[in-house]
Amino acid sequence: MQERDTKFELLKGDKVLWSVILLISFFSVFPVYSASSNLEYIVNSGTTTSHLIKHTFFVVLGLGVMRLVGWVKYEYLGKLSSIFLGLTVVLLCLTMVTGQTIDGASASRWLKIPGTPISFQPSSFAYLMLTIYLCRYLTKTIKRERLPIENMFYIFGPVLLVFGLVAKDNGSTALMILMVSLIVMFIGQLDKKYIFGFVGLSSVLIGIFMFVALKTNLIENNRVHTWMSRVETFTKKDSQVEDEADKAKNYQVMQAKAAIVHGGIAGMGPGKSALKQMLPQSASDFIFAIIVEEYGFIGATVLIALYLIMIIRIVMIASKMPAFFGSLLVLSLGTMIFVQLAVNIAVAINLIPVTGQPLPLISYGGTSMLVTYIQLGIILNVSSRIQVYDEEGMGKKQSIEEINDIA
Fold first, then answer.
1. What would you measure as the largest C-alpha separation in the chain, in angstroms?
2. Angle formed by the axes of helices 192-215 and 157-167, to 10°?
3. Which of 95, 39, 119, 5 is nearest to 287 (CA)?
4. 110: helix, strand or coil
5. Are the C-beta atoms of 64 and 71 separated by less than 8 Å?
């Protein structure tokens, strides 16, 4: 029995979740290697081998970071979240001034580390830190009535601040921040009158932002016109797309549809995608279409099944965790992963307008991948703190006092 405990110490936490993460991580190497030829021949960035090495490096690094997060008490992350959130807000401000574009993307979302070739997206880290911060604050004040001014300053303020800083160059992530924040408020038992008030306030501010961006030049280099164009293109039926301008706007969607249809039931085989060279962002935002083309309906179904197992295990972990902060944190981080997953697949099959959201653990790109591994690391961290009885028994269940965090 001792040997078994030692063997599995490296995989601390929920073993089923660990298994799913490892399977998806291993699988990600193949579609990324195949689709990265688009970056070499179309974007003229690196080689397929260099992109494979880079992606593999981030997978290994991500798994290491995920395990490292498991060694830190998740309560400490909650207590430090306000500091980390402040730092990411500063980085978002810097990105607005000195942001860069990479790998064919059209928005300035990346911040380069001075003296190095390394760039990252501060918005992804800000999104994560905001979610952890909200979980902590809602837990900390759950047993007392909050004054309206407290909710405005400590809940609405941070959410709207991060949303405003992200929205200019990354509208989809900004909307996801609002959506997930609302869900966190709801499951965090914030009074519904404040939730409805936040929805109303957010709607007004978004309307003002859209009006100013579309009708004035006060917000330079904003992407609101791009968003409106994508929505307009999405609402048009294929029969209405006649002129060359409309066809150009609809190009990504048409190529993604063609790739999915081309894949059929069993797919063309690993590396045999015929449309990866013609589909922009085929290694990142549209990689699901390439997966369907190469692995077919069967491969896509297996992958979605793995993601569903991941989400189910996350919900199970949250339901077993007696400490409110731990449970709320797991559900909130799981919601972030699920929303990103749903948006990526929905875009690929043309259920929603085109937007740039990567497929969790698979899409090429370091920042998003590392953030997802951190999220899963925190979830595994919480799962490792739950004492349950298995077939051999693991001792008594921890009391709430032993694992409750930040009252």
1. 70
2. 30
3. 39
4. strand
5. no
Tokens of 179: 């959506």
Q: How far apart are CA 26 and CA 79, in angstroms?
A: 34
Residue 44, H or E segment? none
Q: What is the number of other CB atoms lying within 10 angstroms of the CB of residue 368?
A: 23
Backbone angles phi, psi at 286, to 5 degrees: -110, 25
Tokens of 155: 């809940």
C-alpha triplet 254, 257, 260: angle, nearest 5°: 150
What residues pair up with 119 in beta bridges, in sequence order?
112
Integer Rg of the chain from CA: 22
Distance CA 167, CA 161 (A): 10
pLDDT > 70: percent of the chain: 82
Q: Residue 97 pLDDT > 80, yes or no?
A: no
Q: How many CA atoms lie within 13 A of 130 on its CB side?
A: 33
Round to whole Å and give the CA distance between 74 and 386. Answer: 13
Q: What's the confidence (pLDDT) of residue 208?
A: 86
> Is residue 266 within 8 Å of 300, Cβ to Cβ?
no
Q: What is the dihedral of CA 135, 141, 144, 150, to 10 degrees?
A: -100
3-state secondary structure of 119: strand
Which residues does residue 120 pair with via DSSP β-bridges, in sequence order?
Answer: 111
- 110, β-bridge pairs: 100
Spatial CA neighbour of 333 closest among 141, 184, 170? 184
Q: Identify the burial level of 23 via C-beta atoms within 10 angstroms of its C-beta, where 0-12 means exposed, 13-18 middle and 19 or more buried.
A: middle
pLDDT digits (tens, 9 = 90+) for 40-95: 777 667 788 888 999 999 999 999 999 999 888 888 888 899 999 999 999 998 88
**Its pTM surpasses 0.90:** no
In single-letter form, the type of residue at position 9 comes to: E
Q: What are the φ and ψ backbone dihedral angles of 27, each rounded to 5 degrees?
A: -65, -35
Q: Render pLDDT for 281-305 as a digit per residue (tens, 0 to 9).
A: 888 888 999 999 999 999 999 999 9
| CA pair distance 307, 342, nearest whole angstrom | 10
Please tell me the predicted confidence (pLDDT) of residue 112: 75
Instruction: Report helix angle 287-320 to 15-35, nearest 10.
Output: 170
Residue listed under structure tokens 């799913």: 20
Crossing angle (nearest 10°) for helices 324-348 and 287-320: 160
H helical segments located in 168-250:
171-187, 192-215, 224-235, 244-249
Q: Which residue has the tokens 């405003």?
A: 164
